[in-house]
Amino acid sequence: MDCSYFRERINHYVDGELGYLEVAELQDHLSFCADCAAELGQMSEVRTALAAWGRAELAPPPGFAERVAAAAALEPAPDERTVGRVVNDMLDALDETLGRVPLPGGRTIPVKNVIGAGIAATAVLIQVERHIRRTRELKPL
Q1: Is the pLDDT of residue 122 over 90?
Q2: Interacting residues of 109 by C-beta distance below 8 A, sequence separation 6+
């Protein structure tokens, strides 16, 4: 028996998202299908376990607040110019200068991404060429 129709609805049933007719239809199916009834039982057990876990009180490990405060103190101020922010600003300016490349489907990508992909592909080709050259040099005649 193909139970895929009913298996899709078991989760909605547990969440209380089915209408009266769908509930009746599923309950009728569960009355004679042991596999789907077992799946409903397992789903209910998981939901109950998750609900119980959600009520458990969790305490942070010792020293957690101090470690968070120390890490926050190391973060730069929002107006402070870090290397990452400078690089990001330069890349944004590069985007504005170079523009975008149109793609099929009406999407576009920044020109810097196309240039970066070209540089990466070139680096891969150079490495492949070096590898081929080395293997030829090492082959016995």
Answers
A1: yes
A2: 100, 101, 103
